[in-house]
Amino acid sequence: MRRIAPDRDQLLAIVAEVFREHGYEGASLSLIGEATGLGKGSLYHFFPGGKEEMARAVIAHIDGWFEDNVFAPLRDSADPQAGIGHMFEATDSYFRSGRRVCLIGAFALDESRDLFAGQIRDYFGRWVTRLAEALARSGHRPGEASELAEETVAAIQGALTLARAADDLDVFSRALRRLRMRLGLSVKI
Amino acid sequence: MRRIAPDRDQLLAIVAEVFREHGYEGASLSLIGEATGLGKGSLYHFFPGGKEEMARAVIAHIDGWFEDNVFAPLRDSADPQAGIGHMFEATDSYFRSGRRVCLIGAFALDESRDLFAGQIRDYFGRWVTRLAEALARSGHRPGEASELAEETVAAIQGALTLARAADDLDVFSRALRRLRMRLGLSVKI
DNA sequence: GCGACATTGTACCGAATGGTACAATGAGTC
DNA sequence: GACTCATTGTACCATTCGGTACAATGTCGC
To answer: What are A108-119's pLDDT values in tens digits?
Structure first.
């Protein structure tokens, strides 16, 4: 049995950070090479498709993390409220309380969206759907659950933007606290 | 009296659209030249500071539009509810019901934020402050008004992201409808 | 040590990048 | 027509871009 995965995981994490900070166009191969310590030879060995394949792999990597740590708990928790609580904790931790920005959300905004439209739509679509299902199971009427889910995911994205614009992490914390309350969770102190 | 403003206005509008679609890094001088019909000679004549000055002027231009059409009505309307209603109409119209993305929000996300941090913080800060004041004047307690304003502006940004990600304009319309309701406005049919 | 293959460094490619220099043109004033 | 100054097109600059080619390594099973 061969082990490629672990190194590739942390490689993708580093590349993700470069895309996150500089955007798709702004993340040059030299920046990526510098951050990963890999030359073009290695980079193109692991990602023969070049920059576009790197971005695609990074999105899939992030998507996988959310699938495991957010979407699956939303779907599988016996207690839907517990699943939703789990979502907020994972979200707060992933975005480092607002220090980090959503790569996929950023990609959605500029013209790189066209390249990755399918992956982007999938990611957000699954997030909203899974959350809506959990809300429905916890007592909301279906239509209401759907709107509330969409509103919640959008609020998280907006809070990330605003927190970064204001350079104030509390913006994100406040948003999460309000969302927990609105979704009927007890807010931890 | 000399008239420079009108041409410069529509020039800035075109340049803004290029930045909006391609981001700061992605908006190359050749794209800008192509969109405006101007060569580098003219471009650098109007913006001696190059690309950075163009972006700065574009942000200021957008900021000015919001000052006139959103922030001022929020501050000056005798009836604060009317001012808030005006804000939603102007916002919906500016973002073309979700077809357009917020340039300043997009700039806030990637590394170009560092270049324009001050302008970006100003823009969002004034939006939140003006809205909070209007909400306070319409009866909300100050702390509550402040949180509600922050929540509303973030919700608009998030809805723009999500609408674009899902490639579904209704996401934005639904968000605006919910916000109007939450802020106590009658929703138009 | 051998062969197979994964990994890497380096040199290189044409194209595009942001930016500069400057001469030519435009239009309006006197 | 001459002067002024805003505007423009073009050629050019060094640098960087994403990407390719390939020989030189490393690393493993055998």
So the answer is: 999 899 999 999
